[in-house]
Amino acid sequence: MSEEYIRYRNAQLKIFMKEGRYRYYCIGYKKAEEIEIISRLTAHTTNCVLLESKYEVRVVSDAEIMYCDRGSIDETIGYIFENKGQSGARKRKAEMGKDVGYVLFARVNVFPSSLELDEHTKSNRFVDDYLFHSYTAMLEKFYKVVEVFVYRKGGESRGLLRFVDKDSPKEYIFDDLIVILWAGLGDFFMIHSLQYEFLLRKREQYENIYVPISNYPYSNRYSNLKLIHGSTIEKLIFDNDKMCGYLENKLTDKRVSISKKGEEWKDKHIYDIWKARLNICEDISPYKYDYVLKEIVMSTMPAEEKEMIDRLLGQNEVVGLQPYSGFFHASNGMWETREVRNWDSENTEKFVELCSQNGVNVIILTPNPYERLRKHPHLPEVSTSGYIYAISKLRLLVGIDSSAGHIASFYDIPSITIWGGTNPLRNEAEVRSDVGYRVLRNNIGVVSRSRSTKDIDYRRVYDILSDTLMNGIADAGRIISYDDSINDFNIIYTG
Predict the structure, then answer these.
(1) Are the C-beta atoms of residues 188 and 182 closer than 8 Å to each other?
(2) Please, are residues 19 and 114 in contact by the beta-carbon 8 Å criterion?
(3) What string of DSSP letters covers 149-210?
(4) Using alpha carbons only, what angle is made at residue 394 by residues 393 and 400, rounded to the nearest 5 degrees?
(5) Is 400 helix (H, G, I), strand (E, B) or coil?
(6) Where are the domains of the chain?
(7) How confident is the model at residue 427, as a pLDDT?
(8) Per-residue pLDDT at 353 exceeds 90
(9) How far apart are CA 354 and CA 346, in angstroms?
(10) pLDDT at residue 109 tops 70
(11) Could you tell me which of 211, 214, 209 has the C-alpha nearest to residue 238?
(12) pLDDT confidence of 118, banded at 50, 70, 90?
C-alpha cells in the first residue's frame, strides 16, 4: 500500500474519530443460549467481542446494557437496529442466573458530512477496523482474550474473540487447533508436504483445525491456502480484519507459524526452518504429498477454465513470464508492490520482443503496469487453481522470485529466476538474517551484483533461456539446499 494512500486513510480516521457518532451496546444472556443469541445478533453486525465477567461491565460507562433471552432478543435487535421504540424486554442480571455472558458491539448512527466515504467503506472495513481499535484500547485495561468462539453462519465457520477479567485464573482455551499458515502462495509450494504431514499428525489430537481469515477479498491472505489444503483445514472467518489480526498476534502456541528468529534463521533454507519448527525430525521429501495438492487443483478448477487454458497453452510449448509482483487496487487506482521484486519495464519489454523475433512463444502470467506489454498474450483472470494449472502446462518459466517459479518447481518445470533486491540467500535487501528462499529444484538463478533488477540485461536472460530450452538444466532433479546456493550451484551473476 502506498504511503500516499495510507496518509489519506489516516486522515479519514481522524475526521471520523472527531465527528463520527456511534454508540456502544452490551447484551447480557444466559450462556446456555449463547449460540442462538449470537447467531441472531450477527445477522445485523459482526463487529462484536464476547465478555465473560464477574462484573456487570467494565469497559465503557455509556454502554447501553440489556439482558435478553431467546424470546426477547428479536425485540431488542429491533430496538437497536431498526429504531422500533424502546425495548420492553430488559431483564435484570439477577433473573438470568449465575452463568451470564455478554456481547459488546458498537453501532454507527451518523457519518460526518465532511467525510466522503465510498459505499464499501461506509458499510464495512473502515468503520469496523476503527471500532475494534477502540475496543482493544479499552478491553486490555480490564480483560484478556482467552478463546475463540466458533459458530456457524451460512454454512461457514465464523469466529469471535472472548475476553475474561484480567484477574481471572482462566487461561487460553483451545479445544481446536488454530493454524496460522505461510502466507505466500509460491513459498507454500515448497513446504506443502511438511505442512500436510504436520496436519495429518495433529488430526490425532484435534477434531477441528482452523485457519483464520478476514472476510475481505483484498485482505484475505489465507483463502488460497485453504483451497489447496482441501478438507484438511477449515476457514474460520472474521468479518473484522483487525480482529483477525489481533487473534494472530495474541496466539503464542498451538498454531503453525515461524515465531523464532535471529540466529536460528541464519544459514538455512526456509524448508529446513519449517521442518524444525514443525518438529518433523525424519527426512521427508518436499514432494512427498505433491499428488494431494495436484488432485485438489484439478478438482477445484472450473471445467471451462481448464478448456480455455488448454487451448491457450497447447502442449507445453509456451514460456511463462512473471516480471512483476503486485496488485492493482481499483478502490484507489494504485498498484501495490515491492519494487525490489520486479524486473523493470524496459528489460521486460525488450526481452519479450526478442523472444517474439526468435519464435519463442511467451505468455505474461500476472497483471502489471507495463503498457508496452499489453499487445502481447496475457493469462486471463483465472481462479487460483487455474493459475496453478496454467503454470503446470508451461515449457519453461522465467520470472522474479515469486509464486510462479515455486509452482513451476513443484511441477518439475524448468525455471529461470531473476534476483535483484532479493537474492537466493536473503529474502529482502534490508534483511540481515541469511535465509534461503530459492525454489527447490530444476532452477537457474540470475543474480544482480548491484542488487537491482534493472542491471539484469534482457539479452543475457534470453541467452540463458535459449540454452535451457536446448539443453535443459544441469542436475535438474537435485533438491537445492542453502549450501548449494552459497556455493553458486546453478547461479549466474550479472550486472
Answers:
(1) yes
(2) yes
(3) EEEEETTEEEEEEEEEETT-----B-SSEE------HHHHHHHHHHHHHHHHHHTTT-S-EE
(4) 130
(5) strand
(6) 3-165, 177-277, 301-494
(7) 62
(8) yes
(9) 12
(10) no
(11) 214
(12) low
Q: How far apart are CA 234 and CA 261, in angstroms?
A: 28
Which residue type occupies 10? Answer: N
| Nearest-angstrom CA–CA distance, 423 and 491 | 10
- Report d(CA 87, CA 465) in Å as an integer: 73
Rg for the chain (alpha carbons), in Å?
A: 26
In this predicted structure, what is the pLDDT of residue 481?
A: 93
Give the β-pairing of 100-110 and 143-153. Answer: unpaired
C-alpha to C-alpha distance for 296 and 289, rounded to whole angstroms: 12
Buried/exposed 20-46: b ≥16 CB within 10 Å, e otherwise: beeebbbbbbbeebbeebbebbbeebb
pLDDT at 304: 95
Mapping DSSP to helix (H, G, I), strand (E, B) and coil, where does residue 237 land?
strand
Confidence of residue 211 (pLDDT cuts 50, 70, 90): confident
* Mean pLDDT for the chain overall: 82
How many distinct helices (H) and strands (E) make up the chain?
A: 17, 19
Q: What is the pTM (predicted TM-score) of this model?
A: 0.78
Percent above pLDDT 90 for the chain: 34
Average pLDDT over residues 309-329: 87
Burial of residue 239, with CB atoms counted within 10 A of its CB: 0-12 exposed, 13-18 middle, 19 or more buried: buried
| CA nearest to 260, candidates 421, 435, 426, 428 | 435
Look-up: residue for cell 509456451? 318
Write down the pLDDT at residue 325.
83
- Kindly state which CATH superfamily the domain 301-494 is placed in: Glycogen Phosphorylase B; (3.40.50.2000)
Q: Which residues contact 312 (CB under 8 A, 6 or more apart)?
A: 318, 363, 377, 379, 390
How far, in whole angstroms, is CA 476 from its chain's centroid?
A: 31
Cα atoms in the 13 Å half-sphere on the side-chain side of 351: 30
Task: Indicate if the pLDDT at residue 322 is higher than 90.
Answer: yes
| Confidence at residue 268, expressed as pLDDT on a 0 to 100 scale | 85
User: pLDDT band for position 470 (50/70/90)?
Assistant: very high
